Amino acid sequence: MTFFRVIGFSVLVLLVYTGFANILPQVQSDPPSEEVVETSGMDMPGMIAYGEKLFSGKGTCTLCHNDLGRAPDLLAMDLAADFSERQEDAGYSGAATGKEGAAWVEAYLHESLVDPSAYVVPGFGKKGTNDTQSPMPVVNAPPIEMDDVQMNALIAFLQDRAGFEPTVALPSAADTPVAPPAGSVEAPEPLAANGVEAIDKFFCSGCHDLEGSEADLGPALNGISARMTRGEVMSAILEPNAVIADGYEADIMPADFSAQMHSSELILIVDYLMGLPQ
Amino acid sequence: MIRIKPKTALIATFAVAVLFLPEIALATGADTGGVLEGAPQPTRADYPQIGGISARTLAWGLAQMHLFLAAFVLAVPLFSIATEFMGVVSRDDRYDNMAREFMKITMAAYSLTALVGGGLALALFLFYPHLMGYMMKVFRGQTLIYAALFGLESITLYVYFYSWDALRHGNRKWVHMSIGLLLNTVGLSLMFIANAWTSFMMSPAGVDAAGAITGSVWEATRNPLWNPLNLHRFLANIAYGGAIVGGYSAYMFLAEKKAETKAHYDWMGYTSNFIAILGFLPLPFAGYWLMAEIYSYSQQMGITAMGGILAWLFIIQAVLIGTIMLAANYYLWSGLMRTDRGAQYTKYVKYIAFVIVCGFLVWVTPHSLILSAQELQVLGGTHHRLLGPLGIMPAKNTAVNLMLVFTFLSFQMFYRSSRVPTVSWARAGNTVIIALYIVGCMNIVGAGIYGYITPTVYKVGASVPQVVSTLMIILGSVLIDSFMLRGAKSEKIHWGRMHERSQYALFVLPVAFTWLMGLMGYIRSSLRTHWHIYTIMKDNSPEAYIPTIGQAGNTITAVTLAFMAVMVFVFWLSRLGATKQAAPAGQE
Description:
The complex is a heterodimer.
Chain A: H1 2-23, H2 44-56, H3 79-86, H4 101-114, H5 148-161, H6 195-201, H7 224-227, H8 230-238, H9 257-260, H10 263-274
Helix pairs in contact in A: 2-5, 4-5, 6-10, 8-10
Chain B: H1 6-26, H2 55-90, H3 93-127, H4 129-139, H5 142-162, H6 170-202, H7 217-221, H8 226-255, H9 259-280, H10 283-297, H11 299-306, H12 313-334, H13 349-364, H14 373-379, H15 393-417, E1 419-420, H16 426-453, H17 456-484, E2 489-490, H18 500-526, E3 531-533, E4 537-538, H19 549-577
Antiparallel strand pairs in B: 1-2, 3-4
Helix pairs in contact in B: 1-6, 2-3, 2-6, 2-8, 2-19, 3-4, 3-5, 3-19, 5-6, 6-8, 8-9, 8-10, 8-18, 8-19, 10-11, 12-13, 12-15, 12-18, 13-15, 15-16, 15-17, 16-17, 18-19
């Protein structure tokens, strides 16, 4: 009898813990998917925008470079003034000397990315190293694994933030696309580059009369900008069953486009649809 | 010719073994001897798929079960020998009998540990052959030493247990305890080796950036997280072993009918709870060190643990530790009824309970919440304006330190309830102890407030004076009590005078500890994210993701339930072994 009482009691306690674990927010963390970015022909504004995306995304820079004091807050500080002082600092042990202005910033930032301990901002070194070792990971090595184009984009973004004209080399045809090593992970589909590509990728014309498809499973979208706002079109794509047009059925259009589409593709599709004539 | 007595030779051999065994085990293959090729990078297709078996869940379940059992069978001999030593010093046979009974439970669990360990090894080699092949190359001969030590562990364990009565008195007792010491040395060496493999996967050393072996086995062993993990697991094992034996005592207390036997198991339960709390008190500090070393090794890894999706798990951890604290304290308060003087202390229980419940509530308060847009709008941000500040480390450090101090106070009350000091300076001694508590608690709260106004990087530093204050209160009180209670008038302790509810509180400890260990294992393993070996070898298997808290909770519960069922079965077996059938009439 004691055996069953004790087991029953254990099960009860365990159920409480399990229940608690199941009512908390449930988030599954997938391995990072290597986004294929077409950098061929990318101009400098494109590089700056790409760098900004890397800064908060793959580079994981914002994990430490924020206002919590783990590393200098790059988005809040005066980069031009701070960077120029570092060359003269006694703690600087790097080799990117003898340059000025944007060229110095480019050389200094590149060195910081591949050899973070070349200069450690006072107070931000590893504990016990007297600011001679930086806790920052080398960004072109695992786990971050940025390539040269990505590092250049990051530098362009920071040069721009510092008020300099970016001086980094633009990507050449040989640099693109940025793809994962063959066979290591399943390569994701490439991002759509324009509205037509995005419409084709998500097969919108299979149900709507688009691109001359004459499909009628969903309502025709010509002149939609006169009937709906941009926000309503976006909502209709992301939550297709929220509002059903007269004469059409629910649950026909996939409800998981929010998971399938990159935000840039959603914008391309909405732009395309809002531009359709009557 | 020099004649060496067999006894001297035995002691010398033993001393050499104790001193050098860990060195031999950990430094095997000290030559680099490695091949200068990187770690394998298997693609998804390279991972064997067998039927619908989830390789990760299988390996996870077996690893967790092996760890539960191993932690128990390694910890119990540690405090068994300490109890045996107490029996020798105090000349009280009860300690010796209890130490033997501790070992009796271990014996039943030992073969299961080996069985599950073998299953785990098979599962790993079957489903993760590239990873295991690489690990074998890195640790080379050490794996053989591990196997040999396992054999030695078996021999010493059996000899230690079965020679108990044969080597019970006089000098023979010292021989017996020497065997116990050897058993513990071997056991700890086994744990240190296993920890080296685990910590290598988190913070690889002795290899280059591509995983090519560039250093010795010792370098791979002594990776940055090895020692913090060793200390953390060592203390956790003691707390865990104490909790499991406490569960055994509770089970026996509930099952037995005779008052004398109940008294024995009540005393055993009290001692086990004491051991569990003793191991538990320094555990948060060992945890801080481990986390600080993780941050030092990789700031990203640290932030993944404390600020990423795993941050929520520390809220569950708080619930579990809160349960442990409340259960342990409730058990201690119940114990006040064992003595006639205990009643005079019960008036303080409500205040201690208040502090512990408040500490628990602070600990479970999260800072930033994962919210929907609508919830964000209602709340006005990612954290609550008033409760949010309770979610950051200064508040939690203050809470946990106060909980530890007041748990110690519960223990001290019970200890005092059976002793009346007779020294002339008793009043002054009590005043100093009260002052220690007041000043210490003020310091803990003060340092907590300072933690709010200092930059993030110094917050960890602000916890040091809090820890020092807690330790000062505990050590200072123990020191003063040890002098003040010399020659104290002893009151009779009525062992067995406990209600059944208290035994369920004692049983909560092993359940909560087991679940907690499973949770911490999940967190530690998830810190590697999508890497088998962090930054060296990617996990490209189909199950390389970090599961949701719910999924993890379900798995941990399943394994914990299996483990508790095994343990209760072992308790039942142990009782069965002591049961004698009465001879049929006419055959006496």
